[in-house]
Amino acid sequence: MTLFDKSNGNSNGETNGTDLSQIVAQRGQPLGMVIEGSVSNGVEVRLDPGVSVEQIKVGTFVTLQGSDNRFFGVVTDIGLGSTDPRMKYTPLPSDDPFVIQALQGTVAFGTVSVLPQLTLPDVVGDEQGPAAAKSIPAHFSRAYTASQEDVETVFGSEEGGNFWIGSPLDMETKLCLDLGELVKRSMGIFGKSGTGKTFLTRLLLTGIVQSGQASSLIFDMHSEYGWQGQDTDKGVTVKGLKQLFGAKVSTFTLDEEHSRRRGLSTDETVKLGFNHIEPEDVDLLRESLNLSEVAASAAYNLREKFGEDSWLKEFLDAGKNGSLLELAEELQVNAGALRALYNRMGRFTRHGFMVEHSRVDTAAQMIEHLERGQHVVLEFGRYGDDEAAYILVSNLLTRRIHRKYVEAKESAMGGAGKEPRPLVIVIEEAHKFLNTAVASQTIFGIIARELRKYNVTLMVIDQRPSGIDSEVLSQVGTRFSCLLDNERDIDAVLSGTSGSRALRSVLSRLESKQQALVFGHALPLPVVVRIREYGTAFYETIQGGGDSDEEKKRKVDELFG
Amino acid sequence: MSTTSGNGSGQLMERRVGEVVESTSTSFVAQCYQLEGAPALGGLVRTDSPDIYGVVGTVTTEPLDSARPVLARGEDADSEEDVIRDNPQLARLLTSRFEVYIAGHIEDGITRQYLPPRPPRVHSFVYACNPEEIAGFTSQLDLLRLLLNSGASHADEIVGACIRQAASSHDQPNYFLAQACRTLSVELAADVARLNAILRRISP
């Protein structure tokens, strides 16, 4: 009752009414009390007479005030109970509101099952954050809907430097993500086509750019993230990262013409030399180029013969000169396989971004930008629809960047340099790089598995998560899943998650737009998020292309050591 | 609750309806001063010393001498009033009694809705309660449990009548009814059929 005493002492004449609303704001709406439960199955809360079951939805956050602890949990089930089992068979006057109202909430009542997940600190602002719940509240503990403050305590607040991505279901509360934690592990964004993956990705990237927690390298298959993107549902264009952040973002393009047609200027045009292609790349392209294993492995023989720098050029020259047969004999490979390789590579190297020899090391350029704290978007233009080009280019560049990062990190560990800046690499159609057949070979498979140690993580975007190698998927720390309806995809997304049965029903009941189930490393508990609108109101919250204080300090340090 | 002493004794006299003639721990019987002068079923009454409250459960009008049963006398009369006028002795041969189920008492100025240590003494005066007393006493509702478990064959009727009458004494009858329903629901949680029967009796 100290709360009331305090306000009575106030001279500003607060009424008890405002006190009550303050309590509701602090504690949330009272729901009922705990009547039974267990740690494994959660607790059963009997609803107060005034609370209708219809007000509560599965997935709602609830706090339980025990005698020593405050618990934070999620509603997992809602039920109807009765004190008298014979009630089912007793004819009751359903048209008499008086009788019905008297029975409701007393003899016939609602129950909700709550799974306590966390214990909240007793004092808000306590240094000790929420911890996993290892017990349950005692009998008759009161249950409340979680208030804004509770949600902030659990998920962090925007003021605390976290990124607001949306609201929990049925709440106006801002739900925030700790981007620092998010970029520490790989993340995955999954969902059927048209469920808002791209918008969610844009939002997260904006957060990452804004927070300056990490650099990002975006392989932008459909040119959606750089300058501007399309909202196909509303038929409007939305701003891309470059428009929002200006100099913080550098755009690279493979297809200058395409960019020019769209009236955009890009920072760099990427040209890849034959000298940059390695037999490993050919291996990776086997599926998209429809090459046999023998043909792909012939590339290794060619490299052995002609050397790393010029094997492809020499090989293509030999093909042009009609000396493939001799070459096949010399290398002791099947002539048919070598011809197939020649045909496929020949077609491939006619792409506009391929040049015979390139002195410019695009990867090094990109790293330079990334090291400066900039974010790089590589637009594929018309080559975005060419699967092989997308795979080759992203793989080729990433391999080089990976190498640089490993070197930088190793020298940092040896005390000879500074830590490389955390990097998030964004890839779309991830199952093409990370399927079971190639995941062990592609650089992305390696990054997903181990590169967290080298400050590089992946953001994989995919509509068929079942196509991704399960070993790689298990390394994806934080998963954002929009609506999925294929059983195998759902299984894949939820693999290795505790309580996946409960999540499964949530996942298949998501709305088809703007809703995602988020769970994993960066969050203390799984949550369904109504994704924030990416539009004018959102642009206004972005503090231009300016650097944050932290960023400025970093740059000054960099310049003057 | 000893506020009644504040009422004028004349007013109290007016509300005196009878006198205890039989008394047990759970109930007592009072004889009315006036023939047919008993309070209504479910009405709240009290005795004075000690202050014991009760709810009227059974009202009986019968001959004083059980060996002389009442006979029908109105065969030739035009109206019922004529019967009474033509037989003035009747009022002396008949008597009205009412049985009261004890619903609580006052101990050191505090209302207790459980049975008093001793029942009222025989010849204690019985008073009908006025609306303030009713509202005051029924601000607690533990008496409903006493009534439901009184053992009377028509306990449901007594409870229903008591709640209906008490509601009209409260400033917010609907609020009172809601409270009463809640209490009944708790008491009869395991017997929805009985609860339903009582609720229908008090439904406004």
Quick recap of the structure?
The complex is a heterodimer of chains A (561) and B (204). Chain A is 37% helix and 22% strand.
Oligomer: heterodimer
Outline the biggest β-sheet of chain A: 12 strands, mixed
Task: Provide mean pLDDT of chain B, rounded.
Answer: 89
Calculate the mean pLDDT score of chain A and round it: 79
The amount of helix of chain B comes to 25-40%
In percent, how much strand structure appears in the residues of chain B?
25-35%
> What structural class do helix, strand and pairing data of chain B support?
alpha+beta
How would you explain this protein's 3D organization?
The complex is a heterodimer of chains A (561) and B (204). Chain A is an alpha/beta fold. Chain A folds into three domains: 29-155; 179-254 and 372-391 and 419-560, P-loop containing nucleotide triphosphate hydrolases (Rossmann fold, 3-Layer(aba) Sandwich); 274-348, no CATH class. In chain A, 37% of the residues lie in helices and 22% in strands. Chain A has 22 helices and 23 strands. In chain A, the strands form four sheets. In chain A, strands 9-8-23-22-21-10-20-19-11-18-14-15 form a twelve-stranded mixed β-sheet. In chain A, strands 1-2-5-4-3-7 form a six-stranded antiparallel β-barrel. In chain A, helix 10 crosses helix 13 (335-348). Chain B has 204 residues and is α+β, with helices and mostly antiparallel strands. Helix content of chain B is 35%, strand content 25%. Chain B has helices spanning 9-15, 80-86, 90-93, 131-137, 143-148, 155-169, 173-187, 192-202; strands at 16-23, 27-32, 44-47, 52-63, 94-107, 110-112, 125-128. Chain B has a six-stranded antiparallel β-barrel with strand order 1-2-5-4-3-7. In chain B, strand 1 (16-23) and strand 2 form a beta hairpin. The longest helix of chain B is centred in the last third of the chain and has 15 residues, at 155-169.
